[in-house]
């Protein structure tokens, strides 16, 4: 009874609550609950559930059965609506239940009817994803199967990789390539180039092409040039053999190619004047005692560039020149005293198109003669006959230099005939594309020669070395390796006539090469002797060349301890050094020089016969050493993130070249000191951090390399005397230490009693040093600006 009485007020309140709600709906309210109704209903249900959960005798297990019935059953006697006070539950039931960690474990709710639909939708999504996944696998598989693998997945470039490549270069392979090249018949330049192209292509070099140019060559005539003694009427060939002998016994090609290409043609009868080496001192001495106008100079090759000495003789008024090599200047192992030779009077490129390429439609000048002098190379044996030197006067223990007696007057007749004609020369150009900096080129150049026996073995030696290097590289390239920078392999044509092939190609691509070439590695004549290694490098590459020697010298090849120098060299590196300002290097084996006058003897091209090269290097170990040294330098330049150039060495070379008291260099030394300070700052602040992989930002490395590859361009002067380098960083030879343009200006002053040339030369040098200092400083400013912008 007590419980019924207690429940009565609750039932009355509940009935009153439903009645009020019914009346409100009857007064026109929508059958759908508005937002207020929804909130009230939610609060009612929340309160009901809270009350049930708070009942003292509540059994949690009864909810399992209650879950099968609608929760809103108002007939349940257990529901208690007494405390309907929404403000009593501000958080709400669901939030409080979420805070109860045991709620999920003892309360389960019947899944809503929409769960079945949700499950179907999820199943559809899973099926779709699975189908797309399988389709992607199939597409990727067939795409990978059809597309070739990327060549840029390569192994990292490091010294270990370099050694793997270089160990494939073997002496026996170079020897075999050399002998194969000698099997080529004596053909036109283009035919030889086509066979080299086929060989390089067979090795796997991907992009090999010919670059053909029609150029003006000065070839020997149908008969040999002659020298006749007017006193006795005796006629001689350049080799010293008399003209009345049967030519069948002579090497006809040797006779024909004993000439000076691009010399003046004709006949000259005049007195022979001995000018020794043709220096300024020699000319001053001769002109003091005789009139040299239209006379024939007896000139020794060596000591100074031939073109420079000929320009002095031409200015002095000579009409002709007999050119020879004094046996005392030749290495003791050389047997060239009785041999004539060939020289070219062309400073570089096609003479008919100076300064621009020999392309179709280009205007051509008539320049078959590049001098007014009639120039004829002759053997030392002929000179001995001309000066009537008895055989027993030659000392056995020491060499006596040849000299025409002052009292002996010789009148000779010089007959020179050659034929100027246009011929096609071909360059072979092959590319191994880089993966990181494909627009930066490292050029390695050899040359081929179709001039019959002249220089025949030299070109075969040069081409064999570069071909062996290509073969070693392509073995690694087939495994996925690629250099960071593009390596360009070149075999030049027309080298004997004045580096014509390299000049024409470089003039043709001048704008591209000015921007893209970072270095030139020369293989002009790798083995011209067997006594000592002779490394030559521009100042920025001297340290790299020295380091490479210590890694790659083959045993018993006499290369340790060789000093690297920056001196003028022969060959096709000329245009790259003197017109593009590109750092260059060259390794070669030579014989020990016997005198200080031995410089520039390489300008003579002797007939080299089949056995000569194999006598110098029978095992081809010297060739192997040159190939590995060249390969080491090329690989480092092509692959190191920061170009291995030394900026400070350039500044030091400049300061060393200004030593001496022959000219007033006070102002030059002050500018050179500032250049050194800036170079030291550049070396320490920019190059050292860039060589640390932790601090190596790609954009910063690219900026740094752009500065490094143009370091030497500031030292290319506008004009230099004939035969002297425009790049003043290169000295004349190992004997000289000053800038060659300054030395020449001093000599010119002695000859003409004027200091205008000295002032002009000093201005050129001053401008070059100052330009280099400004360039270094601008590079530093760019890096500081970039660093400030980054911060």
Automatic annotation (TrEMBL):
- Transmembrane regions: 123-143
Q: Which residues form the Peptidase M28 domain?
A: 427-590
Known InterPro entries for this protein? Answer: PA_dom_sf, Peptidase_M28, Peptidase_M28B, TFR-like_dimer_dom_sf
Identify the stretch(es) annotated as Disordered: 1-35, 56-92
- Please give the Pfam families that the UniProt record associates with this protein: Peptidase_M28
Keywords in alphabetical order: Membrane, Transmembrane, Transmembrane helix
| Recorded family membership | Belongs to the peptidase M28 family. M28B subfamily.
Q: What is this protein called?
A: Inactive N-acetylated-alpha-linked acidic dipeptidase-like protein 2
